[in-house]
Amino acid sequence: MKKIIIADDNRTFLMYLGLLLKRFEFNVMPAESGLEVLRLLKLTGADLVILDVHMKVMDGFTALRHIKEDKQTTHIPIIMVSHDANVEMADKCKDLGCFDYLTKPLKINKLHDSIQRCFFAHKGTSRRFLRVPFNNKVVLAHRGNDYSLYTETLSEGGMYVIKEDPLPAGSEVEVRCDLGERGEIRAKGNVIYTKKLFGDFLTLPPGMAIRFQELSEKDAVAIKLCIEDLMAKAIFDNQDNGYFER
Question: Which of 128, 190, 236, 243 sits a CA distance of 20 to 30 A from 15?
Fold first, then answer.
């Protein structure tokens, strides 16, 4: 699991950013100053650091400079965040070597995209789709048979469907799923992975991963918005301080 250090002297923002990143399935270590970040890097290292520009004790800009000047930490990607939308500040941070500069309130999809580019773009591998727990009923059609099943997770690229005797990998299916306020979607897809009942079914129940193959633009947008709704629910239900945007 990738390890991310997040630093901000606003504890409310720090708490909700940590919650969001845990939902992205990252290991999160919080810090309240740039100085604390430098200490954590010496002790444990990290795969990514997210730094607020304006902090007391040591601001993010100063911490960024120290990280990039140290041979042991210069390789670690840094994402800077700030309420300051000044182009000059963004350029200063990028000149020091930050990977990206995001302004508050943070947009969840932009944050996720930036993180994924940090980890995958330089490797030439595919970025991961946003994925959320999704306990909902779907109707799966395969070779003239309809199956009413429950889902485990949903992403922009597909879904995991629970089925004790999953269809074989490679099976072509049609999916019909009600996304609530976002309406019903219909999609064609392929089974790309199956898991039988035996093994660690407590971690992942028996079933199959379905990759969407044919998805209308309208349905793709509905899925994206549904995922962002679910991902952000706890955050937007519990805070109104303007730290995040849908």
Answer: 128
- Strands of the sheet containing 48-52, edge to edge, are 27-31, 3-7, 48-52, 78-82, 100-103
Q: What is the domain count for the chain?
A: 2
| Of 128, 160, 192, the domain-final residue | 128
Burial 5-26 (b: 16+ CB within 10 A, else e): bbbbbbeebbebbbebbebbeb
**pLDDT tens per residue across span 55-101:** 988 999 999 999 999 999 999 999 999 998 889 999 999 999 999 99
- Lookup: tokens for 154: 């949903």
Structural domain span for residue 214: 131-231
pLDDT band at 246 (very low <50, low <70, confident <90, very high): low
Q: Give residue-wise pLDDT tens across range 180-200.
A: 989 999 999 999 999 887 655
d(CA 151, CA 196): 15
Task: Please give the model's pTM, rounded to 2 decimal places.
Answer: 0.72
